Amino acid sequence: MEVPSSSINDSSGPETITTWDSFNALILLDEIEAFYNVKFTLDEIDDFRTVADIKKHLRNHGVKA
Where are the alpha helices (H) located in 1-65, listed in sequence order? Predict the structure, then answer.
C-alpha cells in the first residue's frame, strides 16, 4: 500500500489509509497468511477493519503480534 511503517498504528485501516481498498486488503491478507503460515476463516476476514483487528486474529492463531 506504499505507506511508511512509521505512520501505521493499531487504529490504521481503510478510513485512515487511502490505498486500503478491497483489492489491496486481499493482497495484505494473502501476504499475512503466507508470512505467518496461518489461514483465516471467512468470519475472521469479515472482522478485519483495522490493524488491531488483524493483530487480534493473529494472536488467536498463536502468533505474537
Answer: 22-36, 42-46, 51-60
Cβ atoms within 10 Å of 50's Cβ, excluding its own? 19
Grid cell 491478507 is found at 29
53 and 47 Cβ atoms separated by less than 8 Å: yes
Q: So what's the pLDDT on residue 60?
A: 96
**Rounded mean pLDDT of 33-47?**
96
Cα separation, 13 vs 48, whole angstroms: 9
CB 58 within 8 Å of CB 65: yes
